[in-house]
Design goal:
two-stranded antiparallel sheet; globular; alpha/beta; eight-stranded parallel β-barrel
């Protein structure tokens, strides 16, 4: 029987175990340069015993930033700082992918600065507010990307992927979940386009497919992953055809041969779809399962029964930097401070020290 503590081959990259660290926004980059700080390097090095670390989202271009103090991967200075992060993880035997996250309409001119305005598939403002450094402010309607700008955005993902390899990452994860730009193209309430990028399912999956193709062509499919969150309504997303669009998307990307598909379940009811996507995808399948609180040790059974190849842990990794060892020993576990983590507060969280 396969267990979470067995090694696994990830498209040619050997992982020491099947416990992944899920991407979590940390907001610890320098405010002006969006350069990761020394604290970022320390934080990931502490957690290098994960089979695979997937970092917080890094914006592939300046216009892709969604929250204050999030890191980028579009300048030489950022690349150099990320090299400190990857060196620290590799020195401890870990493997690390960076998540490329374009926030799209989930942003604000105050966050972007330099006269920039958020962009999206259509000029539809999301409901709600975001923290912009000094307090909560209402979202604004994004500027609709032109067809040419859509292509430029795709190219921006590919360039950031090359930057990631230069920075020493083992690969990249494309963030197609949680209501950010890729999912905005998939959605029926944020994508109202009538051109090749909107309308029927085959058009609304086009942006995600083209981003995956571009990144895979730039750095190799074996270094490329994709994260999805079917039926996730976070960030004012609505999907009227979840059961149709995600199987179509996975069918379209499967021939590309990417390293993994990472599915996060917003509610237990999507498990049937999760299993269908697992069956349709030929590569490694990572699951961040739906739970009432932080994912716990009971999720390891998902590897044993074949539901997933790896299980991604989020909040529990914050409180327990040596989580794989604690899971193997049956505990004890530090308790995460979920009051802020699950409240959508992106101002940064307090780490527990490595024990």
């Amino acid at each position: 029987m396969t267990t979470a503590f067995d090694p696994v081959d990830l498209a040619g990259t050997r992982l020491a175990n099947r416990i992944a660290m899920a991407p979590m926004t940390r907001s610890r980059a320098e405010a002006d340069s969006r350069v990761p700080t020394a604290l970022v390097a320390e934080y990931y090095a502490q957690r290098a015993s994960a089979g695979l670390i997937i970092t917080e989202g890094a914006q592939p271009t300046a216009i892709g930033q969604g929250y204050p103090n999030t890191p980028g991967l579009h300048s030489d200075e950022q690349i150099a700082a990320w090299r400190e992060v990857t060196d620290g993880v590799h020195e401890r035997g870990g493997r690390i992918f960076v998540q490329l996250m374009h926030a799209g309409r989930i942003s604000h001119p105050q966050v972007l600065g330099d006269g920039r305005h958020p962009v999206g598939p259509s000029p539809v403002a999301p409901a709600g507010q975001l923290f912009a450094g000094s307090g909560l402010i209402d979202y604004v309607a994004p500027r609709e990307l032109t067809a040419g700008e859509v292509r430029e955005t795709i190219a921006g993902f590919a360039t950031a992927a090359r930057n990631a390899v230069e920075a020493g990452f083992d690969g990249v994860e494309i963030h197609g979940a949680n209501g950010y730009l890729v999912q905005q193209f998939l959605s029926t309430n944020s994508n109202l386009r009538t051109d090749e990028w909107g309308g029927p399912v085959e058009n609304r999956i086009r942006f995600a497919v083209e981003v995956v193709k571009a990144v895979a062509a730039a750095i190799g499919p074996e270094r490329t992953g994709l994260r999805l969150s079917p039926a996730n309504t976070y960030n004012d997303i609505a999907e009227t055809d979840t059961a149709d669009i995600y199987p179509a998307l996975v069918e379209a990307i499967d021939p590309i041969g990417i390293a993994y598909l990472h599915v996060t379940e917003p509610v237990p009811e999507v498990r049937e779809l999760t299993l269908a996507l697992r069956k349709a995808f030929s590569g490694t399948f990572i699951l961040n399962p739906s739970t009432e609180g932080p994912t716990g040790p009971e999720a390891l059974a998902l590897i044993e029964d074949g539901t997933a190849d790896l299980v991604a842990y989020g909040a529990l990794f914050l409180a327990n930097p040596d989580l794989p060892a604690r899971l193997k020993a049956g505990g004890p576990y530090n308790t995460p401070d979920t009051a802020t983590f699950f409240g959508g507060d992106h101002r940064g969280y307090t780490d527990y020290p490595a024990l």
